[in-house]
Amino acid sequence: MEALQSWVSEHKLSSIGTLWATAVGASLAYSRARTPLKPSLRLIHARMHAQALTLAVLSGAAVYHYYDKNSNDK
């Protein structure tokens, strides 16, 4: 787990970009199998799902960084 954390801390933008692209792909695959939407609507929904996931991950990373910094200061 420590190796993963150190890699993510060194490659922040790559990690976020990979997460976003994976979320778009997963959402497209899920919506294609489940709902009869036009391709343009599938893409819009996939982008929205990926953005929501990215915001959640960034918020979690900010909270983790905040508590990690405060625990190291004490």
* Strand residues, percent: under 5%
Helix content: over 70%
**Secondary-structure element string:** HHH
Average pLDDT figure = 84
Shape: elongated
Radius of gyration (CA) equals: 16 Å
How many extended strands?
0
Distance between the termini: 24 Å
Summarize the structure.
With 74 residues, the chain is mainly α. It has helices at 2-10, 12-34, 39-73. It contains three helices and no strands.
What would you say this structure looks like, in words?
4% of the residues are buried. It contains three helices and no strands. With 74 residues, the protein is an all-alpha fold. The protein starts with a helix and ends with a helix. The model has no long low-confidence stretch (mean pLDDT 84). 91% of the residues lie in helices and 0% in strands.
Chart the SSEs and their pairings.
Layout: H1 2-10, H2 12-34, H3 39-73
Helix pairs in contact: 2-3
Subcellular location: Mitochondrion
Protein name: HIG1 domain-containing protein
Keywords: Membrane, Transmembrane, Transmembrane helix
What structural keywords apply?
single chain, 74 residues, mainly alpha, 3 helices, 91% helix, elongated
